[in-house]
Structures are given as C-alpha cells and as structure tokens.
Design a protein that fits this description.
By secondary structure, the chain is mainly α. The protein has a domain of about 50 residues. Helix 2 runs antiparallel to helix 3 and helix 2 packs antiparallel against helix 4. The chain starts with 12 loop residues before the first helix and ends with a helix.
C-alpha cells in the first residue's frame, strides 16, 4: 500500500520535537510498563486495596497506546519524510 503524501501538510516544530524525543525510547519500555501496572494492580487487589488496584490497573491501556504511538513515530513519523 503506497503512502499518500500531502505536500501542504507539514508537522509543527513542537510535534517534531516530541517525536524526536519519543523515538529515542525503546518500544519494550511501554510494554514492560503496562505489564508492571497490571502486576502492581494484582498485588494491590490481593492486599485488599480495591480502589487503588483499579486505578493502577487502568494505566496499562495508556502505556500500550503510548507504545503504539512510539512505534508509529519510528516507522512512519516525520523523521522518515525529512530524510
């Protein structure tokens, strides 16, 4: 599938700066953070801290989304188009 580029669309300076920093992080970091949040949530649940366990357990999805964003930036981000 060919990428369709829009020559009028350019990323902003802030977006480029964020992508440059997030691309430096390994994707494994976000997966480990999500698994860690689930493990901590389970431990809290077993310890009887129901509400805290639910709060921490909800961190897994955002960590996985950040990991997906990280992977997209590395493969399809502005850094590929600027080279």
């Amino acid at each position: 599938m060919a990428l369709q580029e829009n020559p009028q669309h350019q990323e902003g300076k802030t977006t480029k700066a964020i992508e440059e920093q997030t691309a430096k992080l390994p994707s494994k970091l976000f997966l480990c953070a999500a698994l860690g949040a689930m493990a901590v949530s389970l431990a809290l649940k077993c310890a009887g801290h129901k509400h805290t366990a639910l709060f921490v357990g909800q961190w897994a999805a955002p960590f996985l989304l950040l990991g997906t964003y990280n992977k997209i930036v590395k493969t399809q981000g502005h850094d590929q188009q600027d080279r």
